[in-house]
Amino acid sequence: MPPNDRARRNHDELFPRHVSTLARTDPELVEVFVNFAFDEILEHGSLDPRRRLMVQLASMIACGALSEFRVMAGAALTAGVSPVELKEIVYQAVPYAGMARVFDFLHSTNGLLTERDIDLPLPSQSTSSPADRMERGLEVQKRVLGDDAVDRMYAGAPGDERHIQRYMTGNGFGDHIGRSGIDLPTRELLTFAMLVSLGGCEPQVKGHVAGNLNVGNDRAMLLSVLTQLVPFIGYPRALNGLRALNEAAPPQTES
């Protein structure tokens, strides 16, 4: 059986004229997946198509899903995600997933943009320099995590570990999160998606639930992100992310 009409329409909007080889070799699985990922989960949450694709792409990098990323990145460009936004998603993955994992995604993204006749390098989105990256990083870090939380991290770090705190401020937030090209609330959604998808990062997930709340993303928005990731990361990581979300931002009890 083919996917239902609504799932097929949603799929075809992203992948016009694309015929999946899996539809021929594994039609039963494709029917279930397309109905779920391109219809059922879209009934829940408030993410617009562009943001949905952006958080899914961030998740795929964290999962190491290079082939799926390549396909979905092309769909994202078709759906209106800009080349700068696509490149910034990849850049932002470096402090969370590490360059060893991101390296192939960067080359794949460059190849995709080149195929679409987009000149590289793209315009710079850096907002810091080697001279002021710590100052810029601290500004962004405190906006996301809060002044008190950042001060506690520095105060509580043993002397031989404080360089790691400085790296997170200058490199993580100054070099990466503080860049332009994607607004800070969307960047925090990307961070949440990456941390949930990496697995084993529940303390950091809870920290960035708070960070999302600080920049204006509410619990409903984060639940929307989790919902859109389920088909791609599976239930164990999604449920771990849900537990971290519930602990950091408990659901409202119904009266």
TrEMBL record:
Pfam families: CMD (PF02627). It comes from the Bacteria. Residues 27-106, 164-247 form the Carboxymuconolactone decarboxylase-like domain. InterPro entries: 4CMD/NDH-1_regulator (IPR052512), AhpD-like (IPR029032), CMD-like (IPR003779). This is Carboxymuconolactone decarboxylase family protein. It comes from Pseudonocardia alaniniphila.
